[in-house]
Amino acid sequence: MKQPFDQAVKRHGQTVLRVCRAVLGRGPDADDAWSETFLAALKAWPDLPEDTNVEAWLVRVAHRKAIDVTRARARRAIPSDDLPERASPLGNPGGDEYGVWTAVAALPQRQRLAIAYHYLGGLPHAETAEIIGGSTDAVRRAASDGIKRLRQIYPADDYPKGVPR
Amino acid sequence: MTDIATFGNNHSADGGKRAEYDALFAIEPDAMAHLHSRLAGIASEHGLVDIAYRTIDTPVGQLLLAATETGLVRVAFERENFEAVLESLADKISPRVLQAPRRLDAVAAEIDEYFTGKRRAFDVPLDYAMSSGFRQIVQRYLPHIGYGHTQSYKEVAELVGNPKAVRAVGTACATNPLPVVVPCHRVLRTDGSLGGYIGGLEAKTTLLTLEKAA
């Protein structure tokens, strides 16, 4: 790829973050997966063919990095009687005020992944099926069930269209 | 596979729908800037940033500064179109281009001092990779013209040992990849008129006036 890598970060950084958050939940794990995705992409960038669909390629890299982060998290688990104090996700200005990420995190895993890669990452259902397994129809159903569930929690009238940010 | 691929394509082509999802799955305003600067730090540690860049505000408008591991490789005026400048760096040197301001802190500080009249010469390392041959010889000579002084294209041609190459000296100045820091603005026509300047004549006048006043 001859294009400056920085353009890819600026153009697709948000998409990749949405995918990472949908898969891992909003927080440091998603941030780490985002960093790992772009670090790996930067390494591979000069050898990437010019006709690559950069966004779809980044979403696939993000998928692998999210799995890595999930595994690392499992390995690093520290048993403890007392839970560490954490920043409250509630009532922070500029935060997840509609609770969308929390609602996404509460979906069954396959629905969450199908939404992440199709609706947020822009991959066709067939490609999502390739990376998460299962048939294309099953993935399509999971994505639509997940979106339906989110729509029940957030009826269209409940939040302003085109959130002002 | 075929009907499914079409379904996917329909989705990608449907920009409005995509924008709607992007708005629903909102990202707080400073998140991207934070992640970007963290990435710049990690990538620099791994030696993966072949070209680091940043922009600064100056009396001659916004300047883009770019550096390789060797040194400052490009200074660009806004009228040159920053995106095009970065594309040509990616094409000629490496596409591993990242906004990573810290590598340019020293350069930015020196340019700042220069514009406040506190600095008369730059001592940051320079990378002349964007020019070659006679142009590079001329550009390497230019810092020898002292602060507040000027020379003509003809004088420069004589001093670099090629008195007939007056036009080539003009081209070398016009294509200087490191304006301001490599002072091509100190080269004028023999009759004392300005000649051209990559940052525009107004910028050239500003620089010459600044140096005369100091």
Structural features, described:
The complex is a heterodimer of chains A (165) and B (214). Chain A is an all-alpha fold and 165 residues long. Chain A is 62% helix and 0% strand. Chain A has seven helices and no strands. Chain A has helices at 5-24, 28-44, 54-75, 100-105, 109-120, 125-132, 136-153. In chain A, helix 2 crosses helix 3 (54-75). The mean pLDDT of chain A is 86. Chain B is of the alpha/beta class and 214 residues long. Chain B is built from nine helices and six strands, in the order H-H-H-E-E-E-H-E-H-H-E-H-H-E-H. In chain B, the strands form two sheets. Chain B has a four-stranded mixed sheet. In chain B, strands 5-6 form a two-stranded parallel sheet. In chain B, a hairpin with a 4-residue loop joins strand 2 and strand 3 (72-77). In chain B, helix 7 (153-159) crosses helix 8 (166-174). The longest helix of chain B has 15 residues, at 31-45. Chain B is elongated, with a radius of gyration of 22 Å. Mean pLDDT of chain B is 90; it is low at 1-13. At the A-B interface, helix 1, helix 2, helix 4, helix 5 and helix 6 of A face helix 1, helix 2, helix 3, helix 4 and strand 4 of B.
Brief sketch in words of this structure:
Chain A is an all-alpha fold and 165 residues long. Chain A has helices at 5-24, 28-44, 54-75, 100-105, 109-120, 125-132, 136-153.
